[in-house]
Amino acid sequence: MTASGLTTGHAAFVEEARTRGELYIHQAYEQYSPENQEAWRKLYARIQPRWERYANSQFLAGLDALRLPADHIPRLSDINKRLQPLTGFQAKPVSGYVPGFLFFDSLRRREFPTTITIRPADRMDYLPEPDIFHDLAGHVPMHTSKAFADTLVRFGDCAHTAARMTADIRDEAERARRLTSIIRALSRFFWFTVEFGLMRGPNGICAYGSGLLSSYGELQHAIESDEVQRYPLQLEWVINQGAEIDHYQPLLFIVDSFDHLFGLVDELEQWMRAGKLFNVAPGLPEVNPGDLRSFLDAGKAA
Ligand SMILES: [Fe+2]
After folding, report:
1. Which residues have a catalytic role annotated?
2. Distances (CA, A) of 163 to 23, 175, 277, 284, 299
3. pLDDT band at 122 (very low <50, low <70, confident <90, very high)
4. C-alpha to C-alpha distance for 181 and 196, rounded to whole angstroms
5. How far is the CA of 75 from the centre of ligand 1 (A)?
6. Separation between Cα atoms, residue 94 and residue 57, nearest integer Å
């Protein structure tokens, strides 16, 4: 056991797996330090009243269904036992960043790549990379909803469509250019929905995006602050809108329901097939070479 436990950026167990090229790992639960467990308790206790107030009802039902513990870091195996019978989804521990195509393809198989490290206790408020609180407390409760789970699977279908429909473009540079634009569009859509989405609810606007649901500060800010622009989601806007990751989101998009969201992913795929994602506006997020390579490789294999 290492002194730093499984703290984000200081977890030898995870870094060694990464060095060996192992993407899928096990949770190594015994390695969590008392400080790691304390970080979970504090994060949970602090945000819980804000969930009651700002989270959508599916998320709250998901917390109950999974019996997400407040007083210790959950064991993924316990969570999965409760999750799988509901929607077939499973949280799968990973050692770090999952290249774009592999990530979307995992969703298609109803597997959610899950970070096992937890943020340091002195950085409770902001962490640019995901940790287990973001992944398990922010994302996984949503996976208990059938409509939401089916939407994630449709995202996976979209990644396959992207790889297949660009695979036979002869000109390599043009293939890479078109694919980069599609990946940027998919990433933006994912960002403004699964990560930062708002939904109209019976009592006003609520949050279903995991980036909001795992951030004590931003959850309230997203719904209450005058500094945030909130608009009904329009596909042509979202796919062309730069996504900024290093501060609270100044612009958020609202959907009416999870059925509405599912329909939007269908529409996104139709736009892709029609060539409407080949020239989205440049800007964030950057599409890194590993993401592009993962789609190119999938296209070759198809
Ligand atoms: Fe996330």
Report:
1. 134, 139, 195, 214
2. 21, 10, 13, 21, 4
3. confident
4. 21
5. 19
6. 29
What share of residues in the chain are helix, strand, coil (percent, to 5)?
Answer: 55, 10, 35
Query: How do residues 30-59 score in pLDDT, each as one tens digit?
Result: 999 999 999 999 999 999 999 999 999 999
Q: What is the mean pLDDT of the chain?
A: 96
Distance 140 CA to ligand 1 centre (A): 10
Question: Could you read off the pLDDT of 204-250 as tens digits, one per residue?
Answer: 999 999 999 999 999 999 999 999 999 999 999 999 999 988 889 99
Pairing of strands 198-201, 204-207: antiparallel
Ramachandran quadrant class, 275 (left: phi over 0; alpha: psi -120 to 50; beta: rest):
left
Exposure of 170 by Cβ count < 10 A (0-12 exposed, 13-18 middle, 19+ buried)?
Answer: exposed
Give SS3 for 271: helix
Q: What is the pLDDT of residue 2?
A: 46
Contact 40, 73 (CB under 8 A): yes
Please give the distance, rounded to the nearest whole angstrom, from the Cα atom of residue 213 to the centre of ligand 1.
10
Q: What are phi and psi of 130, to 5 degrees?
A: -70, 155
